[in-house]
Design goal:
Blueprint lengths: L10 E10 L28 H8 L36 H5 L10 E7 L5 H9 L3 E4 L12 H6 L3 E4 L10 E4 L30 E12 L2 H8 L2 H5 L9 E3 L8 E3 L8 E7 L3 E3 L11 E7 L5 H4 L6 E3 L2 E5 L3 E6 L23 E2 L33 H8 L7 E7 L4 E6 L12 E7 L3 E6 L4 E5 L2 E5 L7 E6 L5 E3 L4 H8 L6 H10 L11 E3 L25 E5 L4 E5 L2 E6 L6 E6 L6 E3 L1
Parallel strand pairs: 2-5, 11-14, 13-18, 21-28, 22-25
Antiparallel strand pairs: 1-2, 1-6, 3-4, 6-9, 6-10, 7-8, 11-12, 14-16, 15-17, 17-18, 19-22, 20-21, 20-23, 24-29, 25-26, 27-28
Length: 595
């Protein structure tokens, strides 16, 4: 994202949505699809003509802020950003520019990442609200109203919209940090990302993904807060390029402010090509399936901008033995002729090899190091426990632009350093990744910005509200974790032995409980050269091991070990119940903690 997110410079909300139906297609031309031409296959198709015609025939929301923009049409096609009602494909401009949208839409909301996560409850309730529309009598060609009262006045029928979606389970998290005018990594050194779990389907589905983000400056809020009749008379107005008298005693000395009212609050949008989501095969029912892809394109850092040079996605990966990985990517044979890169000009290619162990690198892994560029001999490779044939397919996958290995079972645990030899230039280009495979199959779920308590196998993990944009938990498939709100008395009683039916009282006791000094251990923090940090409780307690990286938590039931990928952790053990309570906080740097 080019503009600042989760940053004081601007407000930024991100909306992730998808749509699935049999009529979706990419098309073969970039020309705008004509109206009522849904069956002309040379044109791409997401929304259909019926949807756009309804947009044209519906009254726009007149209560929206339009600044000094003069909206030329009274239907939903004119907005502050699109005042002339220009058509782009068959999307409805008002639906594109505003979220949550009050009318029905074919898009299903998967996640919302908010600048102010305190709005999560409000936004989620609006997403789940019923969607109605007004069906006017056949002889009424006026614009359909958007309120039940006006619909009744026009003898219309106020009905539930056929596109309404029930039981939408969208996630709400805090938006990731990005600085303005910068298309690079976030604070953790990796690109901002959201880990999307594909929806479960009963048959093959054609789908498309849409990501929007709204950027709003604070100019309007500042002007409204400090506005006075005197300042308005001096030209400090919310209009395009106002000329303002910046000195009170020099009214004739004016400067023009570079200000565009249709840009101050603005929506940006990206859509994917059409892709297929398939039902999960029965042979994969005992494990999770994880995608490994490639992002970026051929060229040096200047030539590929605003994209990036090649990189594996995800770049760091934690999965379980018994889970499945689906290695696949899409390349190209039509890159610009003069773009730098290895191999034949214009071609995108990647391959996937395990790296070799080099003894002089102070290695912490037995399956290769990221600090070198030597691939392992294929005959010696034990990559994820794959067969020799699969290892050879991955090594030789650069022969074609597109590659699809299919979902393959991971049968060996360990840490694996990965390299694409096709795109490794030793000096300024490096395509590497690391896969961490823990001993058992895992599932992932996230606690959002509201925080909460998680009970897993007798261990209680507490995440404070608004201290992090969300903590991702990775647990064994055999575990059945329970999650609770902060005020839930059940977990409080389990973790601290508190007996009370009053949730407020429980919360107060939870926050004020004093642990016996013999069971409260001071945490000593210091940094370490590698990315994996550990915390171990004394031997007379339940042993827990923590790996700190990003914001993931892994629980190993059989060995009673707990891998926590968080930035800093406080651990307390209650004297009576012996239960372990963890409090996770997000800090700028990773620390190694000992108890």
């Amino acid at each position: 994202m080019q503009h600042s997110c989760n940053d004081p410079n601007a407000h930024c909300d991100v909306v992730i949505q998808y749509m699935c139906n049999d009529n979706l297609r990419d098309g073969t031309t970039t020309s705008t699809i004509p109206l009522d031409s849904d069956n002309q296959i040379k044109y791409g198709l997401h929304e259909n003509s019926a949807y756009y015609n309804e947009c044209i025939g519906t009254k726009r929301n007149v209560h929206l802020f339009n600044a000094d923009q003069k909206l030329r049409k009274q239907s939903c096609v004119s907005t502050r950003q699109n005042p002339t009602g220009t058509r782009y494909g068959l999307e409805c401009p008002e639906e594109r520019d505003y979220f949550p949208y009050w009318r029905a839409s074919p898009w299903i909301t998967s996640a919302v990442l908010l600048h102010d996560p305190r709005r999560c409850e409000e936004v989620l309730s609006q997403i789940q609200a019923r969607r109605y529309y007004c069906v006017l009598p056949q002889n009424d060609n006026s614009l359909a109203p958007i309120s039940s009262e006006e619909c009744e006045q026009k003898n219309g029928k106020w009905s539930i919209h056929p596109l309404e979606q029930e039981n939408i389970k969208a996630k709400c998290l805090q938006s990731p940090f990005t600085r303005d005018n910068y298309l690079g990594n976030s604070k953790n050194g990796f690109p901002p990302y959201y880990n999307w779990t594909l929806p479960s389907v009963s048959k093959d589905e054609k789908c498309v993904l849409r990501i929007r983000y709204n950027l709003s400056s604070t100019d309007k809020e500042v002007l409204e807060k400090f506005q006075s009749e005197e300042l308005q008379n001096r030209g400090f107005t919310f209009t395009n390029n106002p000329q303002a008298s910046i000195f009170k005693d020099m009214p004739d000395f004016k400067l023009q402010i570079n200000f565009n009212t249709n840009q101050v609050g603005r929506v940006f949008q990206d859509r994917s090509h059409v892709f297929n989501i398939k039902p999960k095969p029965k042979e994969f029912k005992d494990g999770e399936i994880y995608n490994i892809n490639v992002r970026g394109k051929r060229g040096n850092i200047v030539q590929v901008y605003p994209a990036v040079e090649y990189d594996f996605v995800p770049n760091r990966f934690l999965i379980g033995k018994g889970d499945f990985v689906h290695v696949q990517w899409t390349g190209s044979d039509t890159n610009p002729r003069n773009n730098d890169g290895q191999g034949e000009a214009q071609t995108d290619r990647s391959n996937f090899l395990q790296m070799r162990n080099i003894p002089f690198t102070n290695a912490i892994s037995s399956n290769g190091q990221l600090s070198v560029s030597f691939p392992e001999y294929l005959n010696n490779s034990d990559l994820l426990g794959f067969s020799a044939d699969l290892v050879k397919q991955l090594a030789g996958s650069a022969s074609e632009a597109n590659f699809n290995l299919g979902a393959q079972k991971v049968t060996q645990s360990g840490e694996y350093a990965i390299i694409s030899t096709r795109n490794n230039n030793f000096s300024n280009r490096s395509q590497k990744s690391k896969l961490i495979v823990v001993p058992h199959s895992v599932k992932k779920f996230t606690l959002g910005v509201d925080g909460g308590l998680v009970q897993i196998n007798g261990i209680v993990i507490a995440v404070e509200p608004f201290t992090t944009s969300g903590v991702e938990f990775v647990v064994e498939n055999s575990n059945k974790p329970s999650t609770y709100d902060w005020a839930d008395q059940l977990v409080a009683m389990i973790s601290l032995g508190i007996e009370s039916e009053n949730s407020n009282e429980v919360t107060a006791k939870l926050q004020s409980t004093k642990f016996e000094s013999s069971f409260f251990y001071n945490v000593i923090c210091y940094q370490r050269f590698n990315e994996y940090n550990t915390v171990v409780l004394p031997k007379d307690q339940n042993t827990c091991t923590f790996y700190l990286r990003g914001s993931e938590i892994y629980v190993n039931k059989r060995s009673s070990s707990l891998y926590v990928l968080c930035n800093s952790v406080w651990i307390v053990t209650d004297a009576k119940t012996k239960a372990v309570t963890l409090l996770c906080r997000c800090q700028p740097k990773n620390f190694l903690m000992k108890i």
